[in-house]
Amino acid sequence: MVGAGPAGLTVGCVLRAAGVDCLVLETGTREFVERRPRAGVIEEPVVRGLERRGLAGTLLERARRDTACEFRFDGGRHPFGYHELTGHHHWVYPQQFLVTDLVREYADVRGGAVRFGVRDVRLHDLDGDRPSVSYVCPESGHREAVACDFVAGCDGARGVTGAAVAGRARVSRHDYGIGWLALLAEAPPSADRVLFGCHPDGFAGQMPRSPEVTRYYLQCPPGDDPGNWPHDRVWAELHRRLGAAGAEPLTEGPLIEKRVLDMHDYVTEPMSFGRLHLAGDAAHLVAPIAAKGLNLAVHDAFALGDAFVDRLLRGDGAGLAGYSASRLRQVWDYQEFSQWLSELYHGGASGDPFRAGTALARLRRLFSSPATAAAFAERYLGTAARY
Ligand code: RFL
Fold this sequence. Notes:
Number of strands: 19
Number of helices: 12
Helix content: 25-40%
Structural class: alpha+beta
Strand order of the largest sheet: 5-4-13-14-15-12-16-19
Domain FAD-binding: 2-337
Radius of gyration: 21 Å
Bound molecules: 8-demethyl-8-dimethylamino-flavin-adenine-dinucleotide
CATH topology of the domain at 6-66 and 91-173 and 264-350: FAD/NAD(P)-binding domain
Mean pLDDT: 96
Distance between the termini: 21 Å
Protein name: 4-hydroxybenzoate 3-monooxygenase
Keywords: FAD, Flavoprotein
InterPro entries: FAD-bd, FAD/NAD-bd_sf, RIFMO-like
Low-confidence stretches: none
CATH superfamily of the domain at 6-66 and 91-173 and 264-350: FAD/NAD(P)-binding domain
Strand content: 25-35%
CATH class of the domain at 6-66 and 91-173 and 264-350: Alpha Beta
C-alpha cells in the first residue's frame, strides 16, 4: 500500500486479518498522519463495514450520532431530521481519530509492516507478474525496493500512483469555480447538528467535530489568500451567513486552521492498471461539498482488501477483475450528488438571478415534497456499495 491514509490503512487491516504479508509506505511521520484534521462525517454503511472487520471499536465508543442537519435560508431555520425520515444517521468522528485507530490496529495489533517518512517512492513493472516499489529510506538515505504481488495506490490526491497512470487513464475533471475557506475553531459547536447557510453572499457551513473543536466553511473566491480573512472578518461573515430568526448566536473561538480549498472533482478511469489498483483520493477526488471523500476511500478499501484476499488466498480473481467497474458506479453517483448539492449551496450567490431562483426552488422543495426529502436523505446518508 502506498499511503497511510484511511484507504491504505484499511486495505492493510483487511489483509493482515487474513494473514497476508504486506507493507504500507508513507511519506509523512506517524505523528503527522495521526494529527491531520480533515473529514469528520462518516456514513453508517462505512461504520458497519468497519465494525464487520473489527475496526470500529473505539469509534463506536467515542463517535457522536448525528440525526439531523439544518438549512438556513431566507432568514429562517429549516431543520431536516433525516433519522426521523429514514431510521438512519451519520457518525461524527474526526478523520485523524480514525487514522490513529487504524494505524494502531494495523501496526500494533495485527503486526502489519509500515515505513513512515519514506521519500521519492517509485513504481516498477506494474504490467508484469512481479511489480516492485522502491523508496528512499529515511534513516540510511539509500533507495530500497520491495517486490510484491500487487500495489495498492492509496497516496491521495498528490501522490505518485495516480501520476504513474496519467498517460493511460482517462481523467475527467470538474471545476466548480469557487473556493471554500476551511476553518477549525477552538470552540464548542454553535448547534448540535450540521448547519448549511445558503446566503446570497455565499455559502457558510458549521460541522461539529468534538466538544472543543468545530469546523466552519465560508465560500470565497477560488485561490483567495487566507490572509484576507482575519478573525473579525471570518466571524462577522459566519454570523451573517448562518444567522436566522430564533437561532442561537455562534460560539466564537480562536481559529486554529485557516486554508482555502478550491472546489474541484476528478475521476480516474479505470482504477486498475496491471498490478496497480487505485483507491481513495488517488483515484477520485470529490470536493468536500458533499462530505463523501473519506467515505468513498473506505468503501474502495473494503472492496480492494476483500478482492486481494480472494485472489491471494483462494485463487479467485473475480473481485479484482471487477473492482474498478463496481467502484466507479458509486464514485460517479457521489460526484453527481456533489454537483446537485453545490447548486443548492452556491446557486443563490452566483450573481445570476435565474440560478438563484432555481436554487431557492430546490431548497424549498426539500421542505415541501416528501419524495424530494426522501431522495435527499438517501443520498446524504450514503448508499451501501454492492460488494
Ligand atoms: P489521504 O487521506 O490523502 O491519504 C494519503 C496518504 O498518502 C500519503 N502520501 C504518500 N505516501 C507514500 N508515497 C507518496 N508518494 C505519497 N504521497 C502522499 C499522504 O501523506 C497521506 O498520508 O487519502 P485517502 O486515504 O484516499 O483518504 C481520502 C480522505 O482523506 C479525503 O477524501 C477526505 O479527507 C475528504 N474530506 C471529507 N470526506 C468525507 O467523507 N467527509 C468529510 O466530512 C470530509 N471533509 C475532507 C473534508 C477533505 C478536506 N480537505 C483538507 C481536502 C474536509 C476537508 C477540509
